[in-house]
Each structure stands twice: as structure tokens, then as C-alpha cells.
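Ticket #4471: complex job returned nothing on first submit. Input attached below:
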Amino acid sequence: MSAPARLPIPRSLRVETLLLEEAGLTILASSEATDVRCPLCGDPTDRVHSRYVRTLADLPWAGVPVRIRVRARRFFCDNGACPRTIFAERLAAVAPAYAHRTDRQRDALEAIAFVAGGEAGARLAASLGYPVSPDTLLRLIRCAPEEAAAVPTVLGVDDWAYRKGRRYGTILVDLERHRPIDLLPDRTAEALATWLAAHPGVRLVSRDRSGAYAEGIAAGAPAAVQVADRWHLVDNLRAAAQQVLERQRARLPAFPVPAAPDAEAAVPPPAAPDRTPLGSYGRLSPRQEHARQAARTRRLGRYERVVALRAQGWTVRRIAREVGISERTVNRWLAVGRFPERKRRAEARGLLDAHRPFLDRRWAEGCQNVARLCRELRDQGYAGSCALVYGYAACLRTGIPPPEASPPEAAAAPVGQPLVPREVVWLLLRPAAKLAEPERLYVDHVRQACPVLATAADLTREFVAMVRGRQPERLDPWLRAASTSGVAEFQGLAAGLERDKAAVAAALAERWSNGQTEGQVLRLKLIKRQGYGRAKFDLLRKRVLRAA
Ligand SMILES: [Zn+2]
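Support reply: We reran it on our side without changes. The output follows.
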């Protein structure tokens, strides 16, 4: 054949025939190597003993599996001193001895395995023309050689969960080279200490404020500077301020305060009238109403649990694990400062009220395609759901009169509303020069009504300025001020910071922080999820460490 010379076949093979079969394409080839040496003694030989056939899976051809059937030779070794008398020739640059796939197929499958893992990788490989099992792919990951990473001088340490709330491991990140360099199977001080002792040269370690890592670093790399994570510091502070506000909540005046100079106690105004119009499109059945109440009770229970745990000083992360909700929800709930009721239908319905004349007009014009109406409404700034539009359209279609639109005055923001703690924090922390007059009045009023809040606000502002300005020299005065402030939450916080003072001061002085490490934890989670629970530690470690 003349064409085969141009086929992408290794040079040492000569193609004899191509067979198109049910299972794919088979290439019949023979070995043409001339310089054959005994694998044991290395002596050259050309005395053929016999021939045999090796079958090697190769790269697929446009999705069609390809295998190479090589007629290989056995040779005599003529070296009298060599214990080997007969040997099979090696197919150098094609496949290793005893392998069932070519080197290039193994490389391709290994790349697929590292990117997609076992299960997804096997599905992807099958669609490309490599029939291969998930276990084979996982074996390829296990056997892949590991690149030796240089010992970092700046190390980030954080934990990650094998199973939320059950078992944790540790990730180590080279913060200068932006890459994970090792995974440890647990998050104990001993494991970290052992690793650090075996990898001398780490100069600085950024960690969260957990005691175990602090201990491990002190034991394994006593000379390394420990840096507490700035984000966690500010988060601890925010939590303390929030607790003070919760405690003082009842004393918070309404906003804006009455302008009268003798207004000593601003009485919170009556709550805004419930703008629930009569009638309903999409009224709840008793069963639905019951389910709604049950859901609310469950949600309220979770909310109360979150607040209680926070008051005990738990981190957002731990609370989320414990209660079984996302960190985002925990953060949102803590920020709002009161139980966030789900939007009632009537409230949501208010969103549609302003658009009803438009809907009526379009309906009368003959446009009764709800999806289209919904798009048109969105263009006009409608922020409610399409379900509401469907409900309203159903009323128009059936002739059942829709409920009255809400009275427009109820939709306007009522005067003199209590602010939620988050809004109060915002006002208290803003520089006085940036406050509008009613806001300035309000802040003055809050500071007079609750001296504790004034103190907490000053401490918070001072701390944030110190973190932003990277001014470790302000830490000691701040700790003194906080511990003598008489505000319990800040005294507790100061005591905790005092115990970890060197690392806190380093956080104020160093530019390193743990944000990058947390990003690597996210990547690890993605890989772990692809493993469908079969991601054993060694596999996970290999995949995480393979440079992304
Ligand atoms: Zn030999």
C-alpha cells in the first residue's frame, strides 16, 4: 500500500491492511525495528524465534474506535551468560511492554480523567470513541506521575469538607505561585506540623483563626510568621457590632426622627397598613395555607437557631453546616437582623398593580399571549413573577373580576419607619460629612439614646480604618479601648484577639490573606462533586494538585 506511509502510525510499524469491522477500524501492522536488543543484557540480536500478535487500542478515528494488531517477534538472546534465552521485542515509542493501549491513547485518556473524573470521563471518552470504564480512568489518575512542587515560602492553609459537618481535610496553597501544593487527610495540628517539618523553608503562613492550625504551625515551622485572615477579622467584628445592635434594638428610634428639638423619645409609628386587597387571584386552599404555615414555622426555627448560634460566637461557616443552609442565607439573615418573612402573595401582587391598565389595554387589543405580555411588562420595569400575570390573565379570560388594585398611598414609603440594624450600622459608620441632614439628626439621636451603640460604632470604625490602612501600631490602643469599653461583645472580641495577637498584628502588616486559598477550596469542591462520592482521598489529591 502506498497510502499507509502517510498514516499517523508510529515509524517502527509497517501497515499491512486496514479492516473496517463492526467494532471499529483495525490496522494490521508488523514491527520493522531492526536494532533489536535483549531487554536483560542489552546485546543485539536478529535471530527470530517466533511471531505473536499484540492488540493495542489506539486513538479513535472521528469517533470510530481504532485498534492496531501488531505482528511482533520473539527473539533468541545469543549471549551465553544471559539467563534470558527468548524474549519478546519491545515496541518502543508505541506502547510499554504488556500494555493494551498505545502511549498516545493512554495520554489522551489520562487528560480526560484529570479534567472530568471517572464517571463523566468515561461517558465523554465513549462518545469520542474510547470505550473505557470509569475504574480504568481512575487507575490512570492514580498511576500518573506527580510533579514535584517547590516548597513555598508563603503558604495559605484552610480546611475543606469530605462530608459537610463530618470529616474535614486541609488544603495547602502556594500563595506566590497561585497553586495548591498538597492536601492533608485531616485538619489536625499534628498533620500540619508534620508536613511543615518535612518541607522546611515556609516563611509565612496565612490561616483562619482556628486554634489547631496555629498550634500546628508553631510546632512544625516555629520561625514562620502566622497571619490571621483579614476577612475573618472584620467578620468577627461585624458579628460583635450586630449583637450589640440586637441587644439595643428596642431603643432604636424610628427614621427619620421628628424635627422638633424637644423630641426626646421618638415613638415608633404604627406599622404600615397591611395593603392586602380583598379578593384574590390564586387564593390558597386551606391545605396550601396549612403547608405555608408549617414551612414558615420550620424556617423561623432555623432562623432562631442561626441567631442563637451566632450569639454563642459560632462562625457563619459552622452555623451553615450545623443548620443545613447555605452560608449566603446565614449571612443574609444575620444582616437583616429580623426574621425575613417570605413575600405574601398580596404583597407580591402589589407589584402588578401599576401595570394593570397596560395589561387591560393589551388584552382588549387582542394580545392574549401571557408569555409575550410578561416580556412586554419586563421591558417596562415590572419586577414581579410571570405567575402573577398568568393569574391576572386567567381572571380576564374567565370574566371573574380581579381584586381591587391596592390603594396607591399605601405603596408609598410610610414616614417614620424603624430601621433594621444593618441600615443603622451603615449610618453609624458613614463619615458625618457624607450624611444628609435627616440622617445626621438620626445618628445624633441614636448616639444619645444608646451610648453603648455609640461606643460600638466608634470601635468598629476605628478597627476597620486600622485594617484598611494596615496600621498594626494601632492594635494595642484599640485592644485597650475595647476591653475597657464596657461593651460585653467587644470585650469578648478583644480577649479573643489578644490570645491570637501576633497573627492579628501580622494580618494588619502583611499583604497576604486567605482569599486565594478559599478560591482553591472552591475548585476542590467542584472536583469532589465530579467524583460522585468515589473520589477517594488519593484521587482527589492528585486531581487537585494537577495544575489547572
Ligand atoms: Zn540477554
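The first strand starts at residue 13 and ends at 21. Closing as resolved unless it happens again.
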